[in-house]
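Per-residue structure
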Amino acid sequence: MTDYDRDIPEFPIAPPAPRKGRGAVTNLQGRYEVDQREAVDDGWIAPSEEESGRPALRTQIFEERAKSILTHNQSPDIPFSVSLNPYRGCEHGCIYCFARPTHSYLGLSPGLDFESRIYAKVNAPELLVREMAKKSYVPEPIALGVNTDAWQPVERDLQLTRRVIQVMSEHNQAFAAITKNSLIERDIDLLAPMAEKGLMMAAITITTLDADIARTLEPRAATPARRLRTIRTLTDAGIPVGVSIAPVIPFVTDQDMERVLEACAEAGATSASYIVLRLPWEVAPLFKGWLEAHFPDRAERVMNRVRDMRGGKDYDASFSTRMKGEGLWADLLKQRFANAVRRLGLNARNHGILDMSHFKRVELPKPVKPAAPDTPQLSLF
């Protein structure tokens, strides 16, 4: 190295500029890609979309004919064992989404690809009918839209979720739904009669009441105020509604916990739960990039607190701690939640039991063998 080289100051790579309406600030490589790329500082700072004049990232929808539609799990910390997701990827663009790494299986990025390249399982309703028609099918409640939101923007046109609900309604298949989108109100005509029979319940995720934070954290989900209105609308229709505060992010949203619970209880929610920030696989670097872009003043502080809850690591997948964390801060958060829930009378009723006694087994029509064609008998002579 020459003396001239030593005199050149080293500049850190400038954080990528956020894209309007998107959560991820990069298109980070998936962990299964063979060729690895590395960002290099070339002395230029990436301009914003307004400064560069580049067009906003367009969402692309791809049709997929799935081979199966029900996913089974045996995780002891998840309150359901069967789930159904009509879509892969989610346009809501929540930067913290634990499902982002699933796009790596498609050879795509868990970053911007996850929220702009959406795969619609166009045969989802038919696959559900086929599953319920199996003699081996054991009816139990289905969790709808757990990995990716079943009412994300593309659902307005495709209506896959509505068709799936129609199938479940026809056969009294109980389910629980979770969403951040007010589009769920469109399907009240199906949901309310099922709720009346104890076949359906809903949860609305509200991470913060701060609209400015939500705009970058969950850029294409409904605003916090709109989600509160959705809780009231569903409750007035007779649908049991809970609130999911997920995730709780230290120094970004954790201060909002009590206010979110109070607002949701006032809107009619009867139950509540929370999950602390989870950063599996590629979600960790994506979230760190988001912090550097939107909260550079507290990015290191946030990650230090996250590691305090994860045994010094960005993430710990242990069943016993992955949802709530561990350590002093996790214990304080648990106490705050318990005190607020008790004060507001949430979780006082048995909210999570759905009735499977009404299930109607699917009977598929038996295939009819085609009649043999009439052929004249041939003579040997």
Notes: The radius of gyration is 25 Å. Confidence is low (pLDDT under 50) at residues 1-12, 40-45. Strands lie at 60-64, 70-72, 82-84, 87-88, 117-121, 142-144, 175-179, 200-205, 241-248, 271-276. Residues 57-344 form a domain with the pyruvate-formate lyase- activating enzyme fold (CATH 3.80.30.30).
